[in-house]
Amino acid sequence: MGGRSSKKTFTEWDLIKYSNMTNIPLPTVENIYKDFITATGNTNKMDKNEFRRLYKQMYMNCQYGNTPAPFLNDHDIEKMSDHVFEIYDYDGSGKLTFEEFAEIYLMLNHYAGTTPDGLTRRDRFNYILDQYDTTPEFITCERGQQIFNYLNRYNNWPNLNMATSNNDSSKPVINNWEYHWNKLDDGTGRVEKDKFLDYITKSNDYKRYFDPKLI
Fold first, then answer.
1. Which CATH number does the domain housing residue 41 bear?
2. Residue 127 domain flag
3. DSSP characters over 197-209
4. In-domain check, residue 124
5. Is there a domain that residue 1 lies in?
6. Dihedral pair phi/psi, residue 72, rounded to 5°
7. Listed residues 115, 148, 178: the one ending a domain
8. Which of 5, 47, 183, 204 could be 165's S-S partner, Cβ–Cβ 3.0 to 4.6 Å?
9. Cα-trace Rg, the chain
10. Is residue 208 part of a domain?
């Protein structure tokens, strides 16, 4: 998740499932990808302007049944897309791959919570992990570090001086990835994926990212 470690190109993802999770028709998803490849000359790199364009295109094609996406003006969409672009641009290169874009759009889906077909944010997160990991039943220490650091960055915790947990306003949120990893690792250097998912979707420090009641 995030970074440059995807093992699959977008065409190798389960695009039917991706379409269902984002509520964007499959032909639209496929055409957006084809247009991107044509526009970038097969480099698979987009800058912030291209990211804005694709983000808006995806958003405007998202719908539940016959219900279109809630209205956002161009300024709001650009502000949102610029923010998430900077979160994912880990190396400061000003470039992202299409796979990173697809991941961003899926995880920052504008319809929080559970979709009409019962999919949750946890389901979407699990789907993304499956696109990146070569050991599908486990999360390695390296992957755990990447994921924890991504979530910290998403929540902007490095810039918060007095961040607190949800249950105790006097208790600082701990954003050191090793602290959380050591609570899960039994010494083997890897953690069962279900155990890892349970922790980051239910612990006080991370559940805000997944629980729509807290967003």
1. 1.10.238
2. no
3. HHHHHHSTTTGGG
4. no
5. no
6. -130, 135
7. 115
8. 204
9. 17
10. yes
Residues 98 and 32 in one domain: yes
Q: What is the pTM of this model?
A: 0.69
Q: Is residue 176 packed enough to be buried (19+ CB in 10 Å), middle (13-18) or exposed (0-12)?
A: exposed
SS3 140: strand
Q: Nearest Cα to 13, choosing from 128, 138, 105?
A: 128
Number of domains in the chain: 2
Q: What is the pLDDT along the chain (215 residues), one digit of tens a residue?
A: 544 445 688 888 999 988 888 888 899 889 989 888 888 887 888 999 888 888 888 777 765 444 445 566 778 878 878 877 887 787 788 998 888 888 877 776 544 444 544 567 788 888 888 887 667 789 999 888 888 877 777 665 444 333 344 444 444 456 688 989 999 999 999 999 999 988 888 887 777 666 545 44
* Boundary residue ending a domain (67, 84, 115): 115
Contact (CB, 8 A) for 18 and 48: no
Classify 138 as helix, strand or coil: strand
Contact 117, 22 (CB under 8 A): no
- Per the structure, the complete domain to which residue 27 belongs is given by 10-115
Residue type, 103: E
